[in-house]
């Protein structure tokens, strides 16, 4: 009898620990990555939607991240590594239908012929399922839009400079501008083109974990590895203007600049 009770208690403890291990990891902040389509679409050879958006769009939605910058890995059904039975990616398309127009504008798949729905499913699988909204994709996508559409976090304002095909802006100045304008340091990400020229690819904001996240914090690192791969004296980025659209077609600013 005692043995049986002991075994039952043991079984309950094992069951409980497996439930606990499926709880959301103890992440500290969410990282929201806003991409500059003109840079993304210029980095060769890209075939982008036309016209190329002239606003920053969401590339990676709110991504649960530990305080030391380690990203919570995507949901793994074999391990139930974060939340318990989150909504499956296949089931989110209907769920987000009420905000589809907003998503199409602010969270498009920039690749020509790429499916928006597939992109959103990948985003859900990568970050949403391990967020604090595993059962509620509509809320997860809505809070991403609410932050990304808030003019306070519009990099076009926060960076404090205008796009230019001729000026290279020191990253340190851009970081200082964002700090002054929104109160906290973002992370800037770059691509390298040609002879070691850096282009501004993304501005990432780190929001303290909350339901919903609203309060920024400093990102633990202010440049990605590409920006920091060049010597400090060369850490300046080109922030290219969006291409001109002439009779429905994008005209590369590079061609314009070299004309
Ligand atoms: C970050 O923290 C986690 C959890 O404490 C740890 O497993 C991981 O090794 C740390 N990563 C780095 C780069 O310090
Ligand atoms: C933010 O997310 C991107 C992926 O979108 C990742 O490469 C980067 O390391 C993250 N940065 C921070 C500060 O968490």
From TrEMBL:
<keyword id="KW-0732">Signal</keyword>
<feature type="signal peptide">
    <location>
        <begin position="1"/>
        <end position="22"/>
    </location>
</feature>
<comment type="similarity">
    <text>Belongs to the RNase T2 family.</text>
</comment>
<protein>
    <submittedName>
        <fullName>Uncharacterized protein</fullName>
    </submittedName>
</protein>
<dbReference type="GO" id="GO:0003723">
    <property type="term" value="F:RNA binding"/>
</dbReference>
<dbReference type="Pfam" id="PF00445">
    <property type="entry name" value="Ribonuclease_T2"/>
</dbReference>
<dbReference type="GO" id="GO:0006401">
    <property type="term" value="P:RNA catabolic process"/>
</dbReference>
<dbReference type="InterPro" id="IPR001568">
    <property type="entry name" value="RNase_T2-like"/>
</dbReference>
<dbReference type="GO" id="GO:0005576">
    <property type="term" value="C:extracellular region"/>
</dbReference>
<dbReference type="InterPro" id="IPR036430">
    <property type="entry name" value="RNase_T2-like_sf"/>
</dbReference>
<dbReference type="GO" id="GO:0033897">
    <property type="term" value="F:ribonuclease T2 activity"/>
</dbReference>
């Amino acid at each position: 009898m005692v043995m049986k009770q002991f075994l039952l208690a043991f079984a309950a403890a094992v069951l409980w620990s497996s439930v606990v291990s499926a709880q959301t990891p103890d992440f500290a902040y969410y990282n929201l990555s806003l991409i500059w389509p003109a840079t993304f679409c210029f980095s060769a050879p890209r075939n982008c939607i036309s016209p190329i958006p002239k606003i920053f769009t969401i590339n990676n939605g709110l991504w649960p991240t530990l305080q030391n910058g380690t990203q919570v890995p995507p949901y793994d059904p074999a391990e139930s590594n974060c939340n318990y039975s989150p909504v499956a990616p296949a089931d989110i398309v209907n769920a987000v239908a009420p905000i589809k127009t907003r998503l199409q504008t602010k969270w498009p798949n920039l690749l020509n012929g790429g499916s928006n729905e597939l992109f959103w499913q990948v985003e859900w699988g990568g970050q949403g399922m391990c967020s604090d909204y595993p059962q509620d994709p509509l809320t997860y996508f809505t809070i991403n839009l609410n932050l990304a559409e808030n003019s306070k976090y519009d990099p076009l304002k926060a960076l404090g400079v205008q796009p230019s095909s001729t000026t290279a802006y020191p990253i340190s100045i851009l970081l200082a501008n964002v700090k002054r304008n929104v109160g906290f340091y973002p992370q800037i990400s770059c691509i390298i083109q040609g002879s070691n020229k850096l282009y501004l690819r993304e501005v990432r904001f780190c929001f303290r974990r909350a339901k919903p996240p609203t309060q920024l914090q400093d990102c633990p690192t202010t440049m990605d590895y590409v920006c920091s791969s060049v010597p400090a004296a060369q850490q300046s980025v080109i922030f290219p203007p969006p291409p001109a659209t002439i009779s429905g077609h994008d005209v590369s600013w590079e061609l314009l600049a070299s004309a």
